[in-house]
Amino acid sequence: MALDTVLVAVGDDDDERLDALARTAIDIAGPAGATVALLHVFSEDQYRRVRGKLEFAPNDEVTPDIVARRHVTIRNMGGALEDAGIEYTSQGAVGEKGERVVSVAEQIGADLILVGGRKRSPAGKAVFGSTAQEVMLNAPCPVTFVRAD
Fold it and tell me: How many CA atoms lie less than 13 Å away from 6 in the CB half-sphere?
């Protein structure tokens, strides 16, 4: 299967997984020559809070894409991809994370989705987090689950 576009989904709760997500994206996209599409999905409350912290001027056009590009998760991931010579795009979305990831994957024709998750207890290993599970069950392409170290 040829990989042209790898979608990497991140949110505010992925700070501890950014390095693992970046390494995985580089390992997959680099040899394939694929473009990485970074997607930061905000909840409504997170979007309002982050948008307020970024102190936009009153006349500035503000969209989820612009807020995501200025957010630390996208800046850090983008920097790691640039350092590795990987082409990337970035965008933002507001809403339920799993639904938005699936929707964007369909829109951009993603060939693979990377989602992060946390380490689970032995009993919890049988069930992924709700976002990862939503994406895995509904994605239009394969999904790779990346957990933090």
Answer: 28
The closest alpha carbon to 8, from 116, 98, 100, 99, belongs to: 116
Helix (H, G, I), strand (E, B) or coil at 21: helix
Render pLDDT for 16-46 as a digit per residue (tens, 0 to 9): 888 999 999 999 999 999 999 999 999 999 9
Contact between 59 and 6 under an 8 Å Cβ cutoff? The reply is no
Q: Model pTM?
A: 0.89
Give the DSSP letter string of 67-132.
HHHHSHHHHHHHHHHHHTT--EEEEEEES-HHHHHHHHHHHHT-SEEEEEE----TGGGGS--HHH
CATH superfamily name and code, 5-147: HUPs (3.40.50.620)
